[in-house]
Amino acid sequence: MASGLPFPFNSNKVLTKKKMLIPKRLKPGATIALIAPSSPPSAEKLAKALDNLQEFGFEVIEGKSLRKQNGFLAGSDQERLDDIHWAFADDAIDAVWCVRGGYGAGRLLHAIDYKLIRKHPKLFIGYSDVTALHLAFYQQCNLVTFHGPVAASDFPEDTLHHFQSVVMKGAANHLIQADPENLSGTELKPFTISHGTAQGALTGGNLTLLAALTGTKFSPEFKNRIVFIEEVGEQPYRIDRMLTQLLQGTDLSQAAGIALGVFNECEPKPGSPSFSLEDTLRNQLQNLNIPVVYGIPFGHVAHQATLPYGIQAELDADKQSLLLLESAVV
User: How far apart are CA 98 and CA 127, in angstroms?
Assistant: First the structure.
C-alpha cells in the first residue's frame, strides 16, 4: 500500500501542563454507583455486571435510569445526566462504574455540571462510548479517569491484574505488554509501525468517539501526549476516514507516540475491494515520525488493560509495551 501524505496541522492552542485531580483508590467494600450513560444493558449483561461487582466485594447502588430504555438510550438524556450528577455528588459513593457503552454519552457533554465533578472527584470507569465522558472530564475538570472494563466485562486473570494494580493498589511503573497468546485467531498479532520510545500524558479512547468530537471543545489535545486508540466492528475504509479526520482536524500528528489497541472485527468483508486493516493503519500513521505500535491489550476484547487519563506513561514501540510511570490514585 502506498504511503499516505503528511498531515501538517497548525494549532492555536497554548499547551500547558495540567495539574490533575487524582481520585482515591478503590478499596474492598467500596460503594459503587452503577450507571448506564449511553445504551441500556440487556438483562443478561446487567446480571453479569452485578455479579462482577459483588464478587469484588463492592456494595452497589443502581442509578435510577440503569434499567430504563428509551429507544437506543438508557432513559432520557435528562435521566442519564441526573444519574451522573447524583453519582458524583453523593459522598457515600466511592466510584462510578459504567455498565456498558453503546451510544449516547456524547449527547450529555454540553449539560454536565463540571463544577460539581471538580468538587467531588472520584473514580470513573468504562470504555467504548464512555470515551466521550472521559475526554470531557479530562478537558473540563483535569480529572484522572480510567479507560478500563465496563462492569459487564469479562475479567480474565490479566485484565483483573491490570485493574487491581492501577485502580486498587495504585502501582507506579506498571507494565502493559502486548501478548499475541491472548488473541483469537481472527485478531491481528501485535506489530510495530514506527520504532522508538516516547513519554507523555495518556489520552485517547475509541476512534469513533475521537473523530466525532473533532471540532468541539471536548476534542482532546494530542500534542506531546501518548495517544491510545481502539475500535470495533468498522471496515478499513471507515477507519481510514476517521484517522484522516483526526489528522486533518486535530494535532494528532504532533503526538509523542500512538498506542493502538486490538481492533476487533475490523478486517474487510470477504470479497470486498479493500486494503487490510494493517495496511490501513500503516498507511495513515507510519510517516508521522513518532513511535507507533499496534496490539497493546485494550479495546473491545476480554484481555484488556486499564489506562488512566492524564497520567505520564512511556511507550516502547520496539518492545510493544506501555509503562505507566505514575500512580493514578491516592
Answer: 8
